[in-house]
Amino acid sequence: MAGIGHLIGYGIGTIDLVKIFGSSFGDTQFKQLIVIAALALLFAVAVTSYAVQERILISAKDSDAKLGATQMVMKIFNATLHLPRRIQAICWIQFWAWIGWFPFLFYSPTWVGETYFRYSAPGTIKDSADKLGEIGRIGSLALVIFSVVTFSGSVILPMVIKSPETEKRPFTPRPLPVLAPFLNAIYKHKPDLLTAWLISHLVFAAAMSLTPFVQSLSFATILIAMCGIPWALASWAPFTFIGVEINRATSPSSPSLLAHNPSSYNRLSTDPIPLSSLAVDIDSPPSSPQVLRLHHLDRDLDSPALTASTGETAGIYLGILNLFTTLPQFVGTFISMIVFAIFEPGPHRELAGQEGEVVNEVVGTGEGEGINAISVCLFIGALSSLGAAYATRRFKYVR
Description:
The chain has 399 residues and is mostly helical. The protein has 17 helices and two strands. It has a two-stranded parallel sheet. Helix 1 runs antiparallel to helix 8 (131-160), helix 6 runs antiparallel to helix 17 (373-395) and helix 15 packs antiparallel against helix 17. It starts with a helix and ends with a helix. 30% of the residues are buried.
């Protein structure tokens, strides 16, 4: 669904909205895109708010009800410092990967448009009154192709990649004798999800490392399209692995849970059940679909181990993963600020090749203008993706 949303959004970006709507929603392409995006967001939130029925949280521990904002932040911070090793490894992979993805998602349309203006645009386009809108339309066309590749990858990749849950077959397949050799050969050579995620980091790094050398619109579009498959895996793999690890961490056979609750069992007992154990507490109102009751294990709230039920544990771990997705945006913004301060609004004289040349602040107008600042940011992102690839390779050996 995210791929379809990207495709629709980038497709709208390729249309000359000012020519269609005039200045009713703004006098530039960018302003009108912002209005459309805001209306789409309001519609999505309104539908979600109407359709989703939330449950009231009632905790069995009185201490949970007394947690204030500061205590909750400290609880999350404490959980971050004491993450299980494999979940911590996933978060660091996400951190390094998103230092690379941040400049791509924010600046790639502008980079494609600037590349077009520098090397391919005719004079009539360069003299346009809305250069920023022209850049956006050219860049959006490249991202439409990127979205098509992403959507195709999101549909096809799950069919050709072994998920973590199916690496060991839970059943003995019995295909037709004629097809058995063919199907077994396909299954045998299916890559696992971790290997595919590792390769996606390398593909993204290879594509972004070439951005400083791009001098044509077609080459820039090809590099952007190449990143469609890595983006499909970036939107799939980390959440799959974090889900697997959450299931392991909260299962009754988890070492951390058995340490706190040795009486947990994985099988049903065949011993007779005393009638007294079936007594119902009439003072406790029955649960309903509108009420969510958390029954914690009898543990200390300040214990380094995460003290929560399965649902709360999943929420905290996913929240921490989102933190490791958000923090790279601050890092990427800081890096971009330094890069743009050096190369923009105009290249240095020695980079421009012509002393005293005044360069347009939005886009350049010739081929001797020096290094494109956005391509430098994308190249730095490629180096970070190599770090993510190394962390992904190490994840296989983390226990």
